[in-house]
Amino acid sequence: MKHAAIGSLLVVAALASGCAGTGGVDAKANVAEDKVVYHINDANDQAVGALRNIGNHLEVNPKAKIVVVTHSRGVDFLFDGAKDKNGNPYNIPVEKLKAQGVQFDVCSITLRNRKLDKSKFVPEATYVPSGVAEITRLQQREGYAYLRP
Q1: pLDDT (mean) for 145-149
Q2: Could you tell me the CATH number of the domain that includes residue 116?
Q3: For residue 50, is it within any domain?
Q4: From its phi and psi, is residue 67 left (phi > 0), alpha (psi between -120 and 50) or beta?
Q5: Which domain holds residue 89?
């Protein structure tokens, strides 16, 4: 019994030293093109966290292909001049992420139901017929992972 416990400790120690030896490896050196759809349907509760998460995602995997699909109240952070509850403008991180290849989709059904005009949105916004149908399409047909911050 005593020898088995010592053997287990040696295995754990060997594994730990192996992991410690990889500390100098560049985390970005072995990344693939992740395909992720971020779903936002409430700008007040989700947009700040989603933008932060997307920035973090791209920091460790700059090859990631990210689409943000918005509908309902989730489109509000893409209004021209929109600010978060602390008064920080959303357009700055949106512009930065768009420059890194992130796509920001707005649901056209939401526009119709809320009587919103496309001129109300930042130029980085693109439009899809239906937000939920676009999320489904990206997952089912394009193989995107789904994240809802």
Answers
A1: 95
A2: 3.40.1260.10
A3: yes
A4: beta
A5: 32-147
Total domains in the chain come to: 1
What is the per-residue pLDDT for 98? 98
Distances (CA, A) of 29 to 22, 23, 59, 61, 62: 13, 13, 12, 9, 10
* pTM of this structure: 0.80
Q: Which of the residue ranges 43-47, 89-93, 129-133 would you say has the lowest mean pLDDT?
A: 43-47
What distance in Å separates the CA atoms of residue 40 and residue 44, rounded to the nearest whole number? 10
Four-CA torsion 76, 80, 85, 86, nearest 10 degrees: 160
Q: Report yes or no on 63 lying in a domain.
A: yes
Q: How many CA atoms lie within 13 A of 110 on its CB side?
A: 23
What average pLDDT does range 6-19 have in this prediction? 40
